[in-house]
Design brief:
Layout: E1 17-22, E2 25-32, E3 35-40, E4 55-60, E5 68-77, E6 84-86, E7 103-105, E8 125-129, E9 132-136
Antiparallel strand pairs: 1-2, 2-3, 3-7, 4-5, 5-6, 8-9
């Protein structure tokens, strides 16, 4: 699996998302309370740009008339038909056996571990000797 640098951490604060295309695939990366998740930006229902929908919570009920909202800001609602998916897993709550959006792992790494570019400029040694800058070739 190839690694791709998305953005510095400070450019993707909690509650935000970033859209990008990787190898021709539309992806959105979310920062949910300091954790990072990636989803394919395509609703499996009819192909809408899924990740452009609102972030909502999950309504659950243990008893009739009792509704509790959980996972606030962790559910994405498709802007076309309102289908809902869990950002952490890509799981739909409409029919979990049939519909699921592709989820991608996303995490933070120190800048020093990022893959270096393929090109390297030739360097020369520079020293200071008796108040003179000296290049060694």
């Amino acid at each position: 699996m190839a690694r791709h640098v998305i953005a510095p951490v400070d450019e993707l604060p909690p509650g935000t998302r970033k859209f990008l295309e990787i190898d021709g695939r539309p992806i959105a990366v979310f920062n949910i309370k300091g954790e990072y998740f990636g989803l394919m930006n395509r609703c499996p229902h009819q192909g809408a740009a899924l990740c452009e929908g609102p972030l909502i919570g999950l309504a659950q009920s243990s008893d009739p008339g009792e509704i509790e909202y959980t996972k606030l800001g962790e559910i994405i609602r498709c802007p076309w038909h309102g289908w809902e998916f869990d950002i952490r897993t890509g799981q739909s709550y409409c029919d979990p056996r049939r519909f699921r959006v592709k989820a991608y792992p996303a995490h933070v790494e120190p800048g020093t571990s990022v893959v270096k570019g393929p090109y390297v400029a030739e360097t020369v040694t520079v020293k200071v000797e008796s108040d003179y800058v000296v290049v060694e070739l």
